[in-house]
Every structure is written in C-alpha cells, then in structure tokens.
Amino acid sequence: MRTVSLPPVRPDAVIVTESSSRDGLQSLGAIVPTEAKIHLIRQLISAGIRSFDAVSFVNPKAVPNMADGAEVIAGLADVRDGVELGGLVPNRRGLDAALEAGVDTLGVLTAASDTFNLRNINATVEEAMERIRAILDDTPDDVDVRAYISTITHCPYEGPTDPDRVAALAERLLEWDVGWVYLGETLGKGTPADVEVVLEKVLAVAPPDRIGVHFHDTYGQGVANTHLSLQTGIRRLDSSAGGLGGCPFAPGAAGNVATEDVLWLLDGLGMEHGIEATAVARASQAFATEQGIRVNSKANDALMSGAAGS
Ligand code: HMG
Ligand code: MG
After folding, report:
1. Is 155 tagged catalytic?
2. pTM of the predicted model, to two decimals?
C-alpha cells in the first residue's frame, strides 16, 4: 500500500475532504461515465483539493453509480502524489475491494439510528459496529480510517436522535483506534441548536482533532453548522463541490454543504485550506452542465456570475 505524505500545514489549517464523486453521485439515477468522474476529481486536484471521499465499494445493485470505484482510483494513478483518495466500505468484502484498488483512506459506517442503518447497509447499529471491528482488525496500519456516524441529529424514519447515543458510539470508535470519527448530519435538517447539543456531548468524550463533520444542506444550515463546528476546534470538514449529492437511503436529503460555500466561509475567517474556490466552482459547474444536473451553492452562483468581484 502506498503511503501518502501530505504537504505540511499550519496546525490550525482545515482539512476539507471532497465528497462530490462519492456522496455527490451515489443517488443520481443516471449513470455518470467513469471518465467524467475521473475528470472531475482531476479538476478538483488542480484546484488544490488534497483529500477525497472519492468512491465507495458497496453493492452495485443498491448504488449503481459506485460500481466503478476501482476504475476511478486506477484512472488517477498519475496524480496521486500528496493526494489522499478514500473509499467507503460497508463490510469486509468492501474492504478487500478497496485495498485491492489501492485507496489511501477508508470510510467505515454506522449510524445513531437502527432503522436508517438497516435501510442503508442492512445492519443494526450494533451489527454495523461489529462489521467495523472486523474491518479494523484487517486494515493495514498505513491506511487511515474515518468512521462515520450518520443521523446525528435526525433519522428519516425515527425522528430526532439521542445525542448521548452519538457520543457513546464516538467514544467506542475512538477507543478502537479509528483515525477520526466523522459526524454525519445525513438529512441536512439540523440547525446549529441541534448540532451544538451533539457536539457538546461528543467533545466531552473526544478531542476535537479526532472529530470531523459531514453536513448535508437540505435546509440551508450547512454553512452555519460548519461555522459552529470550527468554533469548537474541529478542523476536518466534508463538503461537495457544487453541493452535489444526497443519500439514496435518506429520501429528500440534499447534497453535502457545497465546497465553494465552505471555502468562502474559511477565507472570510482567515483559515488556511489551500484550495482555490473559483477553480472548484468552474469544475463543479462544468461537471453539472455536462451531466444535466443542478449546482446547489450560493458561492458557486456568485463566483460564476462574477458577483464576487463587484
Ligand atoms: P449485507 O446485507 O451484509 O450483504 O450488506 P450480503 O452479504 O447479504 O449481500 C447482499 C448483496 O450485496 C449480494 O449481492 C452481495 O454480493 C452484494 P446479490 O447476491 O444480491 O447480487 N455485496 C456487495 N457487492 C459489492 N461490494 C460489497 C458487497 N457486499 C455485499 N462490498 C450492503 C449489504 C451493505 C452491501 C448493501 O446494503 C449496500 O451496498 N448498501 C449500500 C450502502 C450505501 O452505499 N449507502 C450510501 C452511502 S452511506 C452515506 O451516504 C452516509 C454518509 O455520507 C454519512 C452521512 O451522510 O451521514 C457516509
Ligand atoms: Mg452523506
């Protein structure tokens, strides 16, 4: 397995992980050609993005757009220096496929709600924890693992989430030595009031440098929730260029908070991230136009219309 040495960054620099080629495409009905995915990631690397939640290794019948994960990783072989390519894996079989493809990081997943988890990966929360344990046992030391906890504020089927359950899961996952726990606000429904309660509970059992956040933007709360997370000391953020995406098992949920919107926030706060927002906006706009889908990002609209300069 290749090791990745990312360029040195200030300790307070923010690690923005780009999810558009995974979370952004997994719920699209139309199949996006492998070459288009590779081109999008290449453009985003050119824009300065160094960390990608690039693909997943899941049942292609459940998520047809992720059937070509290995081909996408192979198509990026010449641009991988200093770039982390991640693969989401729901089980041991996914782990084997991800390692064979040569990913740098793994995403493993559970949720704070049994019903969502069953619909998503056919496992209760505890069954998913057992799967994660088995994956970790067989993961080589040089492959970093992010553990996602979905439905941190709301479940599409069970309603509001118990924040104590989120914190208890985070604590166990960190004891198992995952690199980071990523808190997934899967529905994009939670406001900073909801997220604050969860973060308080989680940060009581985990240091902020072991926590990442993954906000969907259905109700336009993604930037506010991101800002709140930064104020707690969290420096790992997932986002999706153009706000593309959603989860096929969370009906009605929009994409992740847009990378362009997050970058505008980080620039305003003077926080280092190494990414050029306008280049991201161009890449996501070109991709969306080609695939006949809509960009969902205020900053993208502004940057592409030239409003930022006026
Ligand atoms: P299972 O029920 O244990 O699977 O897991 P199984 O062993 O019973 O097999 C069922 C079928 O899946 C079989 O195919 C297997 O071959 C196949 P069939 O015989 O029916 O044709 N299979 C696989 N194929 C390829 N790769 C694999 C694999 N494993 C089994 N790794 C499983 C079921 C988890 C595989 C399935 O439910 C699945 O793939 N679900 C898709 C989950 C998914 O991709 N969800 C979206 C990502 S999660 C997300 O977006 C949330 C996140 O963004 C954070 C947030 O927003 O909160 C991360
Ligand atoms: Mg998601």
Report:
1. no
2. 0.95
